[in-house]
Amino acid sequence: MTSSIIDSIIKARYLREGESSFEDICRRVAKAMGKDEKEISDFYEEMASFRFLPNSPTLMNAGTKLGQLSACFTLYVGDSIEEIFDAVKWGALIHKTGGGTGYNFSNIRPEGESVCSTEGVASGPISFMKVFNAATDVIKQGGRRRGANMGILNVWHPDILKFIESKKNEGDISNFNISVMVNDEFMRLVEAGEFDRTWIKHSDTGEEITVGSVWNGIIDGIWANGEPGVLFYDEINRKNMTPNLGLIDTTNPCGEQPLFHFESCVLGSLNLSKFLIEGKLDKTALERSTRLAVRFLDEIIDKNVYPIPQIEEATKKTRKIGLGLMGVHDALLILGIPYDSLEGRKFCEDTMEFVNKIGIDESHRLSEEKSEFPALKGSAWEDYAVRNAAVTTIAPTGTISILADCSSGIEPVFSYAYTRKDTVQKTFEILHPIFERELDKVVKSVAKNASESEELKREAIDTVHKTGSVQGIKWLPDDFKRIFKTALDIDWRSHVLMQAAFQKHVHASISKTINMPNSATKKDIESVLLLAWHEKLKGLTIYRTGSRQSVVLELSSDS
Ligand code: ADP
User: Which of 275, 306, 319, 478 is the most buried (most CB within 10 A)?
Assistant: First the structure.
């Protein structure tokens, strides 16, 4: 990535008074988190070398008066006007500090049901979502970014069809991602083809909704513009590490953190591309950084400034942290392993298992040094005490991966050459550094002289700008093309299986988009959802290329 776009992001979002560089930010954050000189210097090194970065709110607010350091929050929404507008207020307080909020609106009675106090009829969850959306519009987070929300409705809520259609027109409820929380019972009926069976009956109007109408609504919505996302309620709760505290029905905006109402979670990601030596994973370095990252994130729970007391209480009860990976595809590119291969999935699964195991071990050590998380009794950790009820996650790393100049989260690279607009709409040309390096080697071996090699390089880059892919370039060797596939070159099955490989060793969930070509059919989308359920994903987002007009990443404008 060009340093100018990174500089412009740093300036627009992270620099505080008196700071002028990324190193200044690292110094402030390390000083706020480290317990002594040694730890401050270790934390500084981890961040300044881009081996580890915490989520944006930590980079923005650590060591400042604001002091709110978490990216992820979920809130409780009740069925009374007081409770609904309390949640609007709490959401606003969270957005102000840079956090994102998730809500499950299923407690709100369906549209058309009677309201005792006014003898009127209820307006239903979707109308209230519009209030949350409008509130988000007017609050710019600490002046730095607009808030993000997740809106969830359980598949058994009578307004489910209206919910699924609530984002049908692009631009509607635009500050929300929406997801349907489906359960195994529903998925089993779908799989058995019981589409005509009544699924829900509206208690007041008597309206009957069939399994097929809900399922087709979900599929149509995804096909049309990528929403709703789907969350798997039973899988989330089978893997709930603290069932003693109840059931989980909500996630944060990008879905990687299923949380109890009022819980928050601070995220941080290790940049896997920085942990390779001589064509192998440097496990010694990765172990060291994992242990430091766990300490760093755990420390935040005590140093954090919480927006409301309920959040402080719920967060300190479980002390969940969200350590994840980014730069995963970059690491595979360096190692020469295709993303969409058994070998690629095996490498990722083993690596995540290692990080998870070390992370748990460090959390165990912390429990002995300090104390275990308060809700340990009755949790999955009763026999092996830890300080954090959940340790691992996979965040989108939308901004921090740009700072670290690596591929985001576990996503495959979107394009090896593209343009990107910064916060003030200035356009930058980006060329993937590993791609450029390997392309240089290839053109040198194919070309007869320096000028031909320049020509071939230009041709390859132009083709990527136009089509997004190197797959159609005839003179490129097959093994190069096999490795340098993009998110769109990779088939949906491999996307799902990669997410499943990680999920085996991740406590929370995973933020991932299953990319599909524009030609994908509704039947294909159905197959993705069924595979995802069978592969024990906790949730997913599907995006069919070109189905939305506005996308963040673009191929060059002449494409
Ligand atoms: P970053 O790279 O900036 O640290 P991520 O892209 O990894 O952030 O997102 C992590 C989480 O941060 C999201 O799931 C969401 O909860 C929260 N988040 C992301 N973007 C926003 C935003 N614009 N407003 C509020 N919260 C956000």
Answer: 319
